[in-house]
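Reviewer has doubts. Consider these tokens.
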Amino acid sequence: MCPPSLDDLPTLAQIAAPTGDDLFPIYDLTADGSSKVRKVSLNQINGVSPSDITGPAAGPANITTRLTLVSSAGNPQLPAASGAMRDVIVMNGTSSAINVTSATTNIYTSATPSGLAAVNTTSVTANTSARYLSDGVNWYRTH
């Protein structure tokens, strides 16, 4: 079986203002099964774009972009884990810790005192960052 050429994939309409959640088809030569065509988001290809950044923000109430820069005291809140944003980075540029919260108790971190129990607030120490990944149900703090 020959790998597909670009002619084998459907023609993609031009997008005037692509967003990080737009999906693109890729062909995976190493995949098992009947379909080797996969999808990948623009964020996975390009990383962070200017429209993905909020800040420096003075204690934002809600995180609405992939990267939020906090410049003064405040407790930013994660969006719903089921939303389009699956990868969030909070950079704390203040001289004290901030708390990142979730509307529900669905943040998992290995630093949680009771092991892998979910919490609704995690602390981000001064001049550091925290990254949160979602599986569509919960948030997982990876650093």
